[in-house]
Design a protein that fits this description.
It is a single chain. With about 325 residues, this protein is an alpha+beta fold. The chain is built from seven helices and eleven strands. A hairpin with a 7-residue loop joins strand 3 and strand 4. The longest helix is centred in the first third of the chain and has 37 residues.
């Protein structure tokens, strides 16, 4: 909903338009705040203010017209965006809704946006499917209904990134929730790094763990897992970890600057401030969202009050 993809290309174009509308409302709102000061300053200097007053009225008229046309869309888009990042993401990460009719999500393909990983298990002679709804078992011919796994290892809402057999009926399952050892025979789940049995937390739980597994690769002499924040790590027989990739050379660093898209994303998510305020950067998105909602709702209420008063005066 926040990106507009829910409604296909028209939805994405609408969100692009909402971005331009937000800029327009911000600029015209600031000008409406500044114009009175400019007018007072010009009056003190005995300068002409008629043109400034006219521009102020035109600015306010367009601010109001554009605002009341798009305010509902802006409120919905802002509210949805606030829940795409922690901490508000935690409240909706495990919630589900039915298929909303539309050209994008309402697909006749039952596997649409569901399949994450598939692995053939040689020991049990069956397929194991990692999906957005959990893990399922399927027999070799894939003609019978898939059966849900009676035990489910934790997987982040962002999806399963690592799914690999590493022993007799033992699988390595990794996501942004961490990396776990899953015994598909008895259902036991243990943290890969601590070897302790996994205990599902009660109530709301964070969609990310201490070890955010983004990938895994097994080489000739070593295996490596990739932490989203820490980069590549080597795995030894004792499951210890240490950095293995050398520092990026200055030549490569200078020749490969950060793309403008990534800069925009870092600013949009607030991560660009992490260097200065640490983990508190996650509060930027919800706080900014609350401020935007307050401005939108209070602005509409002010317009509505003046609009009703003006119409009331005309009727009198």
């Amino acid at each position: 909903m926040h990106s507009g993809e829910l409604f296909g290309l028209p939805g994405k174009l609408l969100v692009d338009l909402l971005g331009l509308v937000t800029i327009l409302l911000s600029v015209t709102g600031l000008l409406h705040f500044i114009f009175p000061k400019i007018i007072r300053s010009r009056k003190k200097k005995a300068k002409e203010v008629v043109s400034i007053v006219s521009t102020k009225k035109t600015n306010l008229r367009w601010h109001n017209v554009v605002g009341y046309i798009f305010v509902v869309f802006l409120v919905i888009n802002t509210f949805a965006g606030m829940h795409l990042r922690p901490p508000l993401l935690i409240a909706i990460a495990t919630k589900q809704v039915g298929i909303i009719p539309g050209p994008h999500m309402d697909s006749p393909n039952p596997w649409f946006d569901k399949l994450r990983r598939v692995q053939w298990d040689d020991d049990t002679k069956q397929y194991i499917f990692s999906t957005a709804d959990g893990f399922y078992f399927a027999e070799e011919t894939l003609t019978e209904t898939l059966q849900p796994a009676f035990s489910q290892p934790p997987v982040s809402v962002m999806g399963c990134n690592v799914f690999k057999p590493i022993g007799d009926k033992i699988y390595l399952v990794g996501s942004f929730s961490g990396m776990f050892l899953w015994n598909i025979e008895n259902g036991a789940v243990a943290d890969f790094f601590t070897q302790r049995a996994y205990v599902e937390p009660e109530g709301l739980k964070s969609p990310i763990g201490a070890n955010m597994a983004a990938g895994f690769i097994e080489g000739y002499k070593a295996a490596f897992w990739f932490d989203y924040n820490g980069g590549a790590r080597i795995l030894t027989s004792q499951n210890t970890q240490m950095p293995v990739l050398p520092e990026m050379s200055e030549e490569i660093r200078k020749a490969s600057p950060m793309s403008l898209w990534n800069v925009a994303l870092e600013m949009h998510t607030g991560r660009i401030f992490e260097k200065w305020i640490g983990p508190f950067y996650i509060l930027i998105v919800p706080l900014a969202g609350i401020c935007i909602l307050l401005v939108l709702i209070s602005g509409f209420m002010l317009w509505w009050k003046l609009h009703r008063k003006k119409n009331s005066g005309k009727s009198d």
